[in-house]
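new request in #modeling-help
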Amino acid sequence: LDYQHVQVPFEITLWIMLASLAKIGFHLYNKLPSVVPESCLLIFVGLIMGGIIYGLNDRSPPVMDSDIFFLYLLPPIVLDAGYFMPSRPFFENIGTILLYAVVGTIWNVFGIGFSLYGICQVKAFQLQDVSLLHNLLFGSLIAAVDPVAVLAVFEEIHVNEKLHILVFGESLLNDAVTVVLYKLFRSFCEMPTIKSVDVFAGVGKFFVVGLGGVLVGLSFGFTAAFTTRFTKDIRVIEPLFVFLYSYLSYLTAEMFHLSGIVAIISCAMGMKRYVEANISLKSHTTVKYFMKMWSSVSDTLIFIFLGVSTIGENHEWNWPYICFTVIFCLIWRALGVLVLTFFVNRFHVNTITSKDQFIIAYGGLRGAICFSLVFLLPDFHRKKLFIAATTVVILFTVFIQGMTIRPLVDLLAVKRKRESAPTVGEQIHIRFLDHLLAGIEDISGHWGQYYWKDKLENFNSKYLQKILLREYDQPKSSIVLLYEKLERKHAIELAQAGQLGHGPAHPSFLCPAFLCSSSDRTVITDQKLEDTLNPDALDNMQEILARNLYRIRRTGPAYNRHTLPGDSEPTEQAKEILILRHKSL
Amino acid sequence: SVSHSQITRLYSRFTSLDKGENGTLSREDFQRIPELAINPLGDRIINAFFPEGEDQVNFRGFMRTLAHFRPIEDNEKNKDQNGPEPLNSRSNKLHFAFRLYDLDKDDKISRDELLQVLRMMVGVNISDEQLGSIADRTIQEADQDGDSAISFAEFVKVLEKVDVEQKMSIRFLH
């Protein structure tokens, strides 16, 4: 038996296998996932495993190595989150998200740190040797909301898009703040004296970390897009580039002590639209599936490890400290959300309702990031206390908050996410309303939310698309893609019903029986039937449509109505509209 | 209602548009706004400001039209159940949009009216047939009473999942 030879890969594979089997197990019993979130069940399995190992070996089971977590387990999850992040709602709410992520986290850190320090002053608890700095350090690692845990829970409760994006975006972006504060306080711990210069350096560092991460991510993202421009002949390894570049951006950012999470998110968001236009459909599907698969495996492993690491002799159970930690986490988060939302609502059309606020505050779950950070702490005599407190907070938030959030959401009847995709009519009307609002805003003299989006679109079409896309053609607009999809579906249905190519055109070509209510429809001729069913003609039509459906008004450089500058796409559109209008007058 | 500062702001905008300085706006005044000239729906939006058959709009009318685009506040929702519906209610917002489609004011968006709007929103290189197919599809999706036209109720139904309150509200008027 040559176990030594295969031990490491064998055990890793066994762990992953165990995790996946556990997942199958939960879903076999249908009711379970709706009551208990998957993350809880996984931790539970981990607890059992840990207990078994402890019982068998009579020593602490393997603790999740921070390096393994940060280098191998976390990136796939964050990449998945960043890639599938719906960019429009994200950027529409970016101000609020950043506010919650940055200001909210800082608020939480200092709040928790100071209040715990206050608790430590109480003589009865025997905690007086825990200094303010230690408390702040602890605060910095416990305050961060964890994207893994949040994702796991929010996926199951299907809240509306805006709320989802707020909590989700916040949990992803507060990593930058957490990392800086954590490193800052840790370095302060090792310094004999702290000058105010150091504090300012810390603040500056925060901006560097965040912005640097974005820059690194974007540069890797655009490089990836550029690379895929040339992959036409080697389709098979196209998906690989997506993953390689993303992972590289993460590692590079970490190497420079920048925020790896922010880097990988910006990389994914930056490269997405160009890569998707360049790579083949099959590669695209492969990318999506692999991303989901890897993030799922990581996710499962993290929670199981969390459970396993809980058992053992790593903890010092000072119950007053631990209880107060939990209480303060809840209180400060609730307060933070309340205060910040108050400010946000003053500047925004869409107010964040109190129900939403509750969900945001309550959905602030802590997870594996806190856990890894606490193990990374330098060894000092109170480390085990912190480990114990972190474990309890994580277990509390994931179990209690995770399990009760769904009934509470139902109770508060939060606006749930719409399940179905928009119809062609909806799309057209939405575009109509967009144009209408843009017009009204122009009349009332105020730039609406489209200003920056249009600027970005302008920049994109002028420069980026030319460099990064293989064939410089317009990406299909969503209306066109939708229409195409629906038409193809009809074509398939008709073919299956045996009507394709047989006899005269069926009057209900465009409306299958279940949608039609009367037979009084425009009869489509044979020719049109052929045309619209023929995929090439369909493609052609959609391409033309895509190129021609007008975008919302652009606010490029100011121009005179009678002299249109240059020959760019927005001015072509403008010219056409003006000609049309003059014709109709 | 609208606050004092909002009224002041709108009035200064009104006067800056009123080149003739006679206290009313004409269509030419609106057409002078460059962004509106390249808005596909520009003409229709301008028309919406002018009451039936008139060529001038005063400040009151100007504000009244813009009032449709005030955001709906939570505390307003339950306030006045018995009074007239405020201009910026979801139903009135949608009615405003509906009237932009429905030129002949027969309370229905016919295929032709839809085609006209589509033609405005789409470039010149698309054939009438292709546009016709899209229009047919749109009507077919919305039409419930089988009259090959979209009534206001059907229009509302199509947009029931859309956050109209947000899509038809300007931050400025908050």
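bot summary: The first helix of chain A runs from residue 3 to 28.
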